[in-house]
């Protein structure tokens, strides 16, 4: 390839490790909820980089924060702290249950830190026998070996040799199974308030309340993985606020940086004390560029009009998808919270979620799947009513194409 030639999708197969199978289109520019590819074709973005682009593409406040910080200070290492990291940590402490914050670069890293923390806390306070971690089938917590083992999808964790031990998986939303499994040996329960990769499945309020009660009863810590549900995605800063349950540890990433890699683990001062100097770390965690952008994200999504838009657009999505389903009879259920929505395929279309994704791209719409049977939508939190309407019209054309095939 010469300097004048643009990279192509075909080049991916020649130079990249084949663990991904990206679409044939190559996006080159984005603005708000619109994306353009190399050929100048326009798409409406209902995918949001998998719930990452919380304020759409190239939001002015984020561009400004990145540009200003880029002219000041890029990186220091954790030999020093820095002003953007301190400011962001203070903001997260001020607006959540947390008293202490640890920064990393991705959801997997935040979850890795959380899992190491709960094991270390149990060792410090109860001894080495309190090591069991309970998690849930179809849960997803990242791709490091520890997090993928705690995640409840064996296809992601098998084939890499012996897994970390003392990890047990239970059916999600099953109170009886939890009551039977938890004991004084349990050091932590890890869960998503709404499973994302597992199919956009919210926790039942009574289930999540019982999880909290049982953790307290057995001196186990409760970890909420809010990598996908956090940063305003469900209509509140974090989803736990809607359940009336406070975790001991919370992880946040994806939308926290609005597209810039950043993650945070939040917890209390007592629990945080178990990560003494030297017990864990991250070269880039707390990077000034990342923290400056994340601060701008939090400042924007905390505005009442942004969270009000999440609620309004949620209802618009539900109404629109149900109207499409009335005409084409493809979904068994439309579910989710805020702007993380899943359309579950009925028995006639089992295993065909990717067909709807491909047809959507052909119709000028970017969407997602959550497994083989759920079409997933995670657009910008500031997407407009008109953009949702146009995107749903394009999605209807995709549905029509799939059902006519």
UniProtKB/TrEMBL annotation:
Which annotated residues bind N(2)-acetyl-L-ornithine? Answer: 143, 282
Give residues where N6-(pyridoxal phosphate)lysine occurs: 254
EC numbers listed for it are 2.6.1.11
Which Pfam families does the annotation name?
Answer: Aminotran_3
**Keyword Amino-acid biosynthesis appears in the UniProt entry:** yes
Class of the enzyme per the UniProt entry, highest EC level: transferase
Entry keyword set = Amino-acid biosynthesis, Aminotransferase, Arginine biosynthesis, Cytoplasm, Pyridoxal phosphate, Transferase
What GO molecular function terms would the record report? transaminase activity
Residues engaged in binding pyridoxal 5'-phosphate: 107-108, 140, 225-228, 283
Miscellaneous comment as given in the Swiss-Prot or TrEMBL entry: May also have succinyldiaminopimelate aminotransferase activity, thus carrying out the corresponding step in lysine biosynthesis.
Q: Entry's HAMAP family?
A: ArgD_aminotrans_3
Oligomeric form and interacting partners: Homodimer.
- According to UniProt, the name of this protein is Acetylornithine aminotransferase
Species source reads: Ferrimonas gelatinilytica
Q: Which gene encodes it?
A: argD
